[in-house]
Amino acid sequence: MSGQQPLVLEGGSAESVGDFAKFGIVTVSDRASTGIYDDLSGPAILQFFHEAIKSRWQVVYRVIPDERPLIEETLKELCDKEGCCLVVTTGGTGPAPRDVTPEATEAVCERMMPGYGEQMRAISLRYVPTAVLSRQTAGLRGKSLILNLPGKPKSIRETIDEVFVSIPACINLLEGPYIETHEEVVKAFRPATMVRKSKPAAAQ
Q: In what residue span(s) does the MoaB/Mog domain sit (predicted)?
């Protein structure tokens, strides 16, 4: 993409008590996918991972048009083939005719997690009344959590910084990797029985 620095798709520290985790980022945008403008939303999510995640991680990054079959195919690929424990989408969650990301998410998920959409709308309503137009949702496919974020970088950071508080615990309950965060950015909440004080011996 012209005008953008190369993206660094991995981060975290081997010194963390957490496990290695793979994340998916999917920008759903007709114009960004055809190069009409640079994708700013996917990099905003990536920047959050760099700032917030202390344990080692890697991102699989896709920019695709607002085509429901392709969105579904991409989500399945990232969950089933790439093994991403978390897949975050951005874009395509409004009421416009081509906004079909929530439908694609629901189609590939086995169980829905509507509380995430409710929380994100509640957060966004502090800033703009049109947040009620968002149809963001979240769901589970196998051991993967799929989460729809807003399309604008500013809105992404307004929501993900709060929503991520519960995501490491959710991934733990899905028997996924233990994700350690930088608490000054996101203080992940877990029941005391799920808190890890040191890396398991087998992983050291």
A: 24-170
Spell out the residues 6+ positions from residue 74 whose beta carbon is closer than 8 angstroms to its own: 26, 62, 64
In a domain, 112, yes or no: yes
Residue 197 within a domain: no
Predicted confidence (pLDDT) per residue in 11-22, tens digit:
999 999 999 999
Spell out where 65-178 has E strands. Answer: 86-90, 111-112, 138-141, 144-149
Going by C-beta distance under 8 Å and a sequence separation of 6 or more, which residues neighbour residue 126? Answer: none
Helix (H) / strand (E) element for 64: namely: strand 57-64
Amino acid residing at 88:
V
Classified as helix, coil or strand, 6 is coil
Mean of all residue pLDDT scores within the chain: 95
- The residues, ordered by sequence, that sit 6+ positions from 133 with a Cβ below 8 Å of its Cβ are 94, 95
Q: Is residue 91 part of a domain?
A: yes
